[in-house]
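Section 4.2 – Deliverable D4.2 (structural model, holo form)

The reporting period included a commitment to supply a predicted holo structure for the target in complex with iron/sulfur cluster. Inputs used:
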Amino acid sequence: MYRINEIFYSLQGEGYHTGTPAVFVRFSGCNLRCPFCDTDFADYKEMSAEEIVAAVKELNPKLSTLNSKLSTLNSKLPTLNSTPSPLIILTGGEPALQVDDALLTALHTTGMPICIETNGTLALPDGIDWVTCSPKLGTRLAISHADELKVVLTEETNPEQWLQLIQAKHHFLQPCSCQNTDQVIRYILCHPQWRLSLQTHKYLHIQ
Ligand code: SF4
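Output (structure tokens):
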């Protein structure tokens, strides 16, 4: 069983996949206590891998039984079969505390790409299609590669330090809780290896 805080369908708000539809699976619990953490992940309900997959499928408009019924009733509805699938984004808290081979195998039956947002302090199982590592100050990384490195800029952060410690194809720098955007822009203009990541879901007031 897995401790799940919430499962919902929305747009990815930040980083490389900004604007991409995704089913978010938020795991309860984290091994860190960042002072700026703005995620409420304490509550949870226990779910099996099969229950999680069923919830993901129900939220994915390409797979849900609701969409199938509507399409049957109204042939003018656009077919979704040829469109790209929404992502599954495993997030938290720290999803690597709970994600294992059994859950990944079950989630792969949906045919949806599986992404994870991790602080990088725990080893990851194989079978994840996209790794976003958002490392935190004063921690030791357990992974050395990621698809995307996303660093939250605070007064104490040295972004270049993380470039030495983790290899990633994409490097994003993000304001801390939307507060220091000007500082992040100035930093990126002087360090063009970084790209700006905004928490667009907060500006748009979506989940
Ligand atoms: S690693 Fe992420 S989820 Fe965990 S405490 Fe820090 S900001 Fe919150």
